Amino acid sequence: MKKTLFTLFFLSLTLYAKNINIAVAANVSYAIPELISAFHQQNPDIKVQTTLGSSGKLTAQIQNGAPYDILLSANMKYPQALYKKALALTKPLVYAQGSLAILSTQKRDFHQGINIVTNKDIKRIAIANPNTAPYGKASRQALQNAGLYTAVKSKLIYAESASQTVAFTITAADLGFVAKSTLFSPKMKQYKEGIHYTDVNPKLYTPIKQGIVLLKHATNNAEAEAFYKFILSKNAKNIFKKYGYQVQ
Predict the structure, then answer these.
(1) I need a surface site. Which of 114, 121, 197, 223 has the fewest CB within 10 A?
(2) What are phi and psi of 17, to 5 degrees?
């Protein structure tokens, strides 16, 4: 009898437990495991599932009915679009601000800053797709504002997301415009500032304010609301700082 009652109790917990599904911009892929781990310390019974991709593609999926509860976007544009279409329950809020870096697997002289892209030995430059990835849009904008875009346009190779841009930079390009946050992952610690990468002058591109919304699919989902609040908490902000983001 006791065994039967225990089994019924366990099944009831399983039945009523809610997983939460988070759509995560690819640049956050390096920080999200630590964020989830910290969240689990406070909420051990909530399972967080993530889908990574460019913000544009994730937004398109949400508009087509994908069952995500939260969007962590790489900009404010996409969360605002979802809110205007009544697909989000909350107004977009900034959870972190990202920045751009130029990365090479080879030792480089970065004293010339972004102008390094015009060097003759730089034949391929990886950037994220400007049409779907906010970091790609910022990369193109930086090149345009530096007066270099036309000169290097033929060198550009396009990745689908911030994380794929890093992969292209390491395997197929001479340089890459990457989310600075990607350089703080354990796998990237071999690359050193001033030797393998340098910051892109932030005056060359619009600040990359990254936005979060609680989505319509999360209606009456207390677990999703708990994760949403956690991402805006001081604890989460400290983790974002570790990965090179600016937070307020």
Answers:
(1) 121
(2) -70, 140
CATH of the domain at 72: 3.40.190.10
Q: Quick one: pLDDT at residue 17?
A: 54
Positive or negative, the CA dihedral 23, 28, 30, 32 is: negative
Could you read off the pLDDT of 154-180 as tens digits, one per residue?
999 999 998 899 999 999 999 999 999
What CA–CA distance (Å, rounded) separates 169 from 148?
A: 19
3-state secondary structure of 200: coil
Are residues 148 and 114 in contact, defined by beta-carbon separation less than 8 angstroms?
A: yes
Other CB atoms within 10 Å distance of the CB of residue 170? 17
Coil vs helix vs strand at 159: strand
Q: Strand 20-25 vs strand 48-53: parallel, antiparallel, or unpaired? A: parallel
User: Which residue type does 155 have?
Assistant: K
User: Is residue 247 situated within a structural domain?
Assistant: no
Stated pTM of the model: 0.83
